[in-house]
Amino acid sequence: MIYLNFTDLNAETQERLIANSKEEVKEKYGKDIMDYATKHNTNLDKMLDEEALRNLYSYKYIFNV
User: Which domain of life is it from (predicted)?
Assistant: First the structure.
């Protein structure tokens, strides 16, 4: 069995996956994250990026070899 890590993918694929994950996070938790960032005076873009990366590791990847 072969285990591939997210960092094993090429840069273009990583960027596309991060963009998709960021959009998914915005759809699911956008208002909550905005409220939290405003209340605690934190950077919204940084929080979205962090949540997008966390969200990526919840994906189930299937690779055809």
Answer: Bacteria
